[in-house]
Design a protein that fits this description.
By secondary structure, the chain is of the alpha/beta class. It has one domain: P-loop containing nucleotide triphosphate hydrolases (Rossmann fold). 37% of the residues lie in helices and 19% in strands. Strands 1-3-4-2-5-6-7 form a 7-stranded mixed β-sheet, with helices on both faces. Strand 3 and strand 4 form a beta hairpin. It binds guanosine-5'-triphosphate and magnesium ion.
Length: 206
Amino acid sequence: MEISESNSTPRAEFVTSAAYFKELSQSADREYAVLGRSNVGKSSFINHVLESGAIARTSKKPGKTTLANLYRLSDGTAWVDLPGYGYAKASLKEKQRWGRLIADYCTKRDNLSGIIWLLDIRHPGVKADLEAGHWLFALGKPVFPVLTKRDKLPKQKQQQHSSAYTDIFGFPADPLRYSVMEHNSREKFWGRFLQWRDEVLGEEEG
Ligand SMILES: Nc1nc2c(ncn2[C@@H]2O[C@H](COP(=O)(O)OP(=O)(O)OP(=O)(O)O)[C@@H](O)[C@H]2O)c(=O)[nH]1
Ligand SMILES: [Mg+2]
């Protein structure tokens, strides 16, 4: 019989959506944003890791999330699902609004405690992520990288690509590999994420 880990997962509830940064209300002292390329799996990750069914809307096609969506968690934090960057096919006007929303959010959100940065395990070093990486590290906020869609690669390739990511971005350790197809991923995420969160908080307070 499988032992359920679900009681360690905080409950999530949807609070609000916003098309522009100034419209996004705050609901917790500490907030974590889920950032990544369009279609990398941000909304799927949120649903899976928070065991929240379909609280965040997902799609096979890129460009699904067009607003900042705010969730309140039972652990007292909040999470924000952002539109993806790097989607070439949206209209210029939409791309500009998403870019502005992401940039304003990341630079002006005063309760932003860290960024959960999602990267597709299959494609280390794509241009949009390199550009985002430059910008993200300049921002100076703590970053927790997660490699998504691990089920799409054999184990050996996963290891190679994970090391490639670590080299490219100078991560202190190989990032967590995640798949929404695996129950295991959720457990591993919470183990590492909570540890990281404590370390980051310790640095802030210390
Ligand atoms: N095989 C596999 N597919 C995944 C995984 N995570 C997400 N997907 C698929 O990837 C596609 C995009 O997922 P979304 O969660 O909508 O991606 P997103 O990053 O929120 O995309 P935007 O909102 O458009 O920026 C969907 O078809 C998901 O089912 C995973 O771990 N494994
Ligand atoms: Mg999305």
